[in-house]
Amino acid sequence: MWLKEKKALKDTDIVKAIFVLKHDDSSVRAFEKTLIDISTPSSVNYGKWLKPDEIIKSIAPAEANVKLVTDFLAKFGVTGRVSKFRDMIHVTMPVKTANEMLQTEFALFRSVSERDVALPRITKPYSLPSEVAKVVSIVDDIMRFPAMRSSPKSYGLDTTPLKDDDEFGACGTKCNGYTTPAVLESAYSYSSPVAKVAAGNSMSVAEFQLQYWDQADLTSFNKACGTDASVHDTIGGNNERICSAGGCVEALLDIEYIGAVANPIPLTVLYSADYSLLDWVDQVMSLDNPPLVHSVSYGNDEIQQTSDAYMQSVNIEFMTAGAMGLSILFASGDQGVWGRSGVGATYHPDFPAGSPYVTAVGGTDFASKGVIGEESAWSCGGGGFSDAFARPSWQEDAVSTYLSRAAAAGVLPSSEYFNASGRAYPDVSALGGQVNPYCVAVKGGSSFGGVAGTSASCPVVAGIFAQLNNVRLSAGKPALGFLNPLIYANPQCFNDVKDGSQNNCNRGTTGFSTTVGWDAATGHGSPNYACLAKVV
User: Fold this and answer.
1) Which of 60, 134, 430, 481 is spaced 20 to 30 A from 455 at the CA atom?
2) Quick one: pLDDT band at residue 459, thresholds 50, 70, 90?
3) For the chain, what is the mean pLDDT?
4) Cα–Cα distance between 15 and 85 in angstroms, integer?
5) Catalytically annotated residues
6) What is the pLDDT of residues 496-519, one digit of tens each?
7) What is the CATH number of domain 165-535?
């Protein structure tokens, strides 16, 4: 929840906005076909990622439309930054100018849950001249309130005498019974650290909303767990002082575990105070050499987005990133089918996890506590069917089979709750639940805690795909890029999850259950690196 501040914004206070230009629909459809073609392993064009000038030629709005908007901004004395792919114009301007330009009023709103976070937002609809409105899809970052990210679920030390597999004790008694890097290495059949990093390999985690990291915690984690996770670069700033009070759990979870899986593949932390997907993906693609794999543990419900036009604009940027050869993975959420909006007349699918152009990562538990082996669905792992996006071709067979199989077994929820023809997610899963939480160093290296959620699952899977990129790059092949066609073409390379409760997050309602093969609770299951390394 956000509340309007009583104190008015000054005319000289600064606001930011993104003018997102419309794309030609036929060009978008053709571009999508190209993306699927170059992402499909059986295609002769597999891995032939596009160069920036090829992308601009394929999908960028007409230069006349860009000029129309920049000329409009210039009338108000504003010079916008045109994005690399000519479809977004980033603007910084005084409140007085913004009010006049957009025919609206800005006010300052403050988060109820995070009092340090305040954003300028409009208090009434904005307006553009008709000729400008014809070429602009949306003006973003002026009306949407981001849901403040809740920290992953934390748990106190398990004081039960340790009877688990030895790997659960790999980080010492401070992490008694927790999931450790050694547990993941055994469960998913990879080896760490990477013996030799291939030229050009790289990975990234995205952090928002005051989620910083500190070297003291990272050093403490490495010392306890026998790892050497490290950060190669931080873009967007960092404030380590916040971490001493325990305020960096999300970022530390991401960094400690993607690093533990895939170090020394260079890791970049991309930080932004605001949770703006368009700003983040533009930041990524504007880099001269953007990281090849991106792990993002943030999201909201589809119904919490500004509009379908906004989500489609984000989707086009994800398509562009995939066509460049980048792999983008998002956590599927920690509230089951009901999402952050809570129980209602229908399920609340996640965005961006429900986007067809990202890889959504769900959560599992070990079927038996402290035993590395079979996994079960985590009841709070996000999963389901998008209400906004149609089912893509690469998952048609898997999802159709699931719907038939679940209906025959009597475990398919009533059709009134979900859009059976929508993009289905998650695509894959990994440990993230509460049976054996992850061991994480926090509070400036002075403490360890247990943390659970798909925020843990996502960086682990991202780290494994960063390792798989290393296999390809070392063999002189291009990076994996958009992952989903590869994943759905190789279900045998994932540990199928066939057990577990419905992903209703224990709300006393229905949800999706696991089945043999792909399901809407765990996707294809968790990755088997040894198998995947043979098929990439």
Assistant:
1) 481
2) very high
3) 93
4) 23
5) 250, 254, 455
6) 999 887 899 989 899 999 999 999
7) 3.40.50.200
